[in-house]
Amino acid sequence: MRDLLKLLPLVILFILVFIYREPITEYIVEKIIFSKEIYIEEPNQYALDYDFEYIKTTDDFIADNRQEILNIIYTSLNNGYDNFYFYCHYEECQEDVSDITEPENLITISNYIHPYNAYRRVYVSTNSFDKVEIRIEKSYTKDNINSINQKLDQIIKEIITDDMSDKEKITVFHNYIIDNTVYDSNYLETNLNDIDNPSHKALGPLFFGRALCGGYADVMAIFLNRLNIPNYRISSSDHIWNFVYLDNNWYHLDLTWDDPVTDSGVNMRLDTFLLITTEQLENLNTNYHIYNKTIYPEAK
C-alpha cells in the first residue's frame, strides 16, 4: 500500500501532463525553442542596400506570416548566405514555405538581389517544431565571379569615362554588350532548360558572345550594381529584363529585345527598350513583357 501511495504523485503528474500536453508543448516551443537567439551572419560584399516596396530586409528570423517568410528568405539570399534557418510561429507556415520556395515563386525573390548571390538550386527541410533550414547552391562560382569582375574592369576602362552621366554609362555599356553578343537562338531551340549553359548568365555575353535573356539581364545588373544604381530584374512567364532607378524615376531596360535576331544574320542594335517608362513599354505591346505588378510595384 505504501508503494502505491508513493507512485500516486507520479500517476497524477502523468495524467496532468497528458491532459495539458498541448499548452505544455506550446509553452516549450514559445519559451524555450523560440527564445533561442538566432545568429545572423554578416552580409557578404555583394549584398545590396536598396529599399523596395515588395520585399524588405529583416533581422527577425521568427516568422508570424507569409510576408515575414518572404523577407527572411530575401534577406538571407541578399546577404549571400549558403545556409540559414528560421522558425515559423503560425499554423500555415509549412504550406507557405513550400509555396514560396517553388521555382516560379523563388525567382521573384532572386530578381531583387545581386546575381552573384542568386541561387542555382535551393534545398529546404523542416521539422516538427517549425524550424525551417535552407541550403543554397549558388549560380556563380568564385572562379566565375573573379573572371567576370576582371572582364568588367577591362571593359569599363575601355568605354567608360568619369565625366559621363549615369545614363551615358548605361547607354555605352548597353551598346557594347549588344555589339559583342548575339542572341543564342540555336540553344533556345535545343535545350532551354539546361541551367548550366553560360547563355543564361553573364558568362555568355562576356566570354562566349552569346546570351539568352537571363545572360543579358545578369550582366547589366552586375554593371549597374558596380555603379551603385538601384535596380532589380523583372520576370514575366517567359522573359526577364532590367528595371533601373535613374534620376528619381524607374525605367525598363531590355538588352535582349534591343539585340534582335535578323534573317540575314547581321548583328543589329536597337535602343527601343533602352530606359523606357512602363507606359512606353506597354505601348510596344510585345506580349513578352506582361508581369505581376503586385510583385514589382515600382513598375506600375
List keywords for this structure.
alpha+beta; elongated; 300 residues; C8orf32 fold; four-stranded antiparallel β-sheet; 3 domains; four-stranded mixed β-sheet
What are the SSEs and their pairings?
Layout: H1 2-19, H2 21-33, E1 62-63, H3 66-78, E2 83-88, H4 93-100, H5 103-110, E3 119-126, E4 131-138, H6 142-159, H7 166-179, E5 182-183, H8 185-190, H9 203-208, E6 210-211, H10 213-226, E7 231-235, E8 240-246, E9 249-253, E10 274-276, H11 278-284
Parallel strand pairs: 1-2, 5-6
Antiparallel strand pairs: 2-4, 3-4, 7-8, 8-9, 9-10
Describe the structure in your own words:
It is built from eleven helices and ten strands. The chain is of the alpha+beta class and 300 residues long. The protein folds into three domains: 2-33; 62-138, no CATH class; 142-299, C8orf32 fold (Roll), CATH 3.10.620. The termini are far apart. The model has no long low-confidence stretch (mean pLDDT 89).
Specify Rg, calculated over alpha carbons: 25 Å
Instruction: Work out the strand percent.
Output: 15-25%
Structural class: alpha+beta
Spell out the helices and strands N to C.
HHEHEHHEEHHEHHEHEEEEH
| Distinct helical segment count | 11
Mean of all residue-level pLDDT scores:
89
Which stretches are low in confidence, meaning pLDDT under 50 for 5 or more residues running?
A: none
The largest pleated sheet is described as: 4 strands, mixed
- The number of distinct structural domains comes to 3
